[in-house]
Design goal:
- It contains 14 helices and 23 strands.
- By secondary structure, the chain is an alpha+beta fold.
- Strands 1, 2, 3, 4, 5, 6, 7 and 8 form an 8-stranded mixed sheet that branches. The protein has a 6-stranded antiparallel sheet with strand order 19-20-21-22-18-23.
- The protein is globular, with a radius of gyration of 23 Å.
Length: 503
């Protein structure tokens, strides 16, 4: 039996799709046929119907057309009505389920991962599949191999991106409500760095259509070799690129997307990044304007300054939860649906942002659209998006260190290290364990011991322990890392070389 479970990556299926540096291909045509057939069986059971309609789209990766062809061929062979959407963003594929009343959507993408990687994401009207759903699909696939034979029929082309872009345009027109209604962005210069992913659509079919000057935008051609930089708002080279684009073009706003546009970040007119905690603060400001006292759900590594900004300056509630975009989205849904709380935004520092008004879909283009609308409104009262987050306190220093766990049974080992660290901190003067921990353990250091915090957690997908650290004064991070080094050095199954290099 072919083992496929290792292809599970959180709520996605991911693997090597083209051979590189001698690494074999994981996503072979035969495996893709079996996985797609398992998806069909799962979907029939989930929806309780035999006749299915499915949309298929893909990002700019070199391997995407091959995978799309195989997935479509398999779906057709099983009697599924297939709509081929071609090059598409991940959020637009979810919206295809809403806009065209199909049963499910498949997006072929590996987000920001290297060019040789690719994968599959699945959607129904309820949203993306869960990790347990992916387990069931892979389990069925490895036990029931499938190969396409015989006549398969043909797909039907569907211009899903056209509908998606038109909706974003209408959203901006209504939101800005400019004197020239159809050209609300005619006095703005906005540049985009698409990183050779699929994000060029936002330039051509949204910004230009609405009158914006986009001269100076970068890397708009879809190129799955990603020759310029990784399309990833968390990547330093990528962020440097969009900052340079703003400086060189004199733009009012810079925008950067990841490969499949479910994440984004931006840059103000002074080429200052609005990313991570700043991006969360800006999105929270927008979300809470019409949802006074609402709950903003974030991942676990957000700063103390962000907590203060949301609760003291915006009047909201900050619910710091777990890493993983699906975790924060599901928690916001739970708070809203089960506890009756207003939870207008679920957002990760990575740039995944999901508004309740938009089906809790993590959509980078929707986030940027909301920011552009807000910028238009603020301009009418001589304010800017930078001014509304000016009270956000940022740490003086921050650092993330990752420790590889050199064991196959890595999770239990990692959790035991976290437990030991918690015990140590509970018994150390000047260090206090945070009262609420949904993930790992977060500890606070007083002024004499670093004036900041550390969070030790397991990686969402990989055999790693991750230490996040922030301090409010110079030298504070180093002080806290020295404390952690003394603790971690006794664990022989951890690779501590990165910490040693820092110290």
């Amino acid at each position: 039996m072919d083992n496929l479970m290792y292809l599970k990556s959180g709520t996605d299926i991911r693997g090597t799709a083209i051979e590189k540096d001698g690494k074999p291909v994981d996503l072979t045509d035969n495996r893709l046929m079996s996985i797609t057939a398992a998806f069909v069986e799962f979907l029939k059971e989930k929806l309780g119907k035999e006749q299915l309609t499915v949309t298929v789209g893909y990002d700019s990766r070199v391997s995407s057309p091959r995978i799309s062809k195989t997935v479509c061929k398999t779906l057709l062979s099983l009697g599924v009505k297939v709509y081929d959407c071609g090059l598409s963003s991940t959020p637009s594929m979810f919206m295809s389920v809403v806009n065209f009343d199909v049963d499910s959507a498949v997006e072929i993408t590996a987000s920001h991962l290297p060019m040789e990687m690719n994968g599959l994401k699945f959607f129904t009207r309820e949203g993306g599949f869960s990790g347990d759903d992916i387990k069931k699909i892979l389990s069925f696939a490895q036990e029931n191999p499938y190969e396409v034979t015989g006549d398969i029929g043909e797909t039907e082309k569907l211009n899903n991106m056209e509908k998606y872009c038109n909706d974003l345009c209408e959203m901006i027109k209504k939101g800005v409500n400019a004197e020239n209604y159809d050209k609300p962005l005619e006095n703005l210069k906005i540049v985009v760095d698409a990183g050779n992913g699929v994000g060029a659509f936002y330039v051509e079919n949204v910004l230009k259509v609405l009158g914006a000057d986009t001269e100076g935008s970068r890397y708009l051609d879809p190129d799955g070799t990603f020759p310029n930089h990784i399309p990833n708002p968390e990547n330093a080279t990528a962020m440097k690129s969009i900052c340079e684009a703003v400086e060189e073009s004199g733009a009012d706003l810079g925008v950067i997307f990841d490969t499949d546009c479910d994440r984004a970040a931006c840059v103000d007119k002074n080429a200052n990044e609005i990313n991570r905690n700043k991006l969360v603060a800006l999105a929270a400001y927008i979300a809470l304007k019409d949802n006074e006292g609402g709950v903003i759900v974030t991942d676990s590594v957000t700063s103390d300054g962000l907590n203060e900004f949301i609760e003291k300056h915006l009047g909201g509630v900050h619910h710091r939860f777990k890493r993983g975009y699906k975790n924060v989205i599901d928690e916001a849904k739970r708070l809203q649906n089960e506890e009756g709380k207003c939870a207008p935004l679920a957002i990760e520092t990575s740039g995944h942002a999901a508004f309740s008004e938009n089906y809790y879909l993590d959509d980078g283009a929707y986030l940027i659209t909301k920011i552009i609308i807000e910028a238009g409104k603020l301009a009418k009262v001589n304010e800017t998006i930078e001014s509304v987050i000016k009270d956000l306190k940022t740490p003086v220093e921050e650092k993330e260190v990752r420790f590889t766990i050199k064991l196959s049974d890595f999770r239990d080992y990692g959790l035991s290290v976290i437990s030991d660290f918690k015990t140590l901190c509970e018994n150390t003067e000047g260090v206090a364990v945070a009262p609420v921990n949904y993930e790992g353990v977060r500890v606070n250091f007083d002024g004499a011991n670093g004036d900041g915090w550390q969070l030790l957690r397991m990686s969402v997908h990989e055999p790693l322990l991750v230490l996040n650290c922030e301090s409010n004064k110079e030298g504070g991070v180093l002080r806290m890392l020295e404390f952690f080094k003394d603790f971690i050095s006794k664990y022989k199954e951890l690779d501590v070389s990165k910490l040693q290099a820092i110290l």
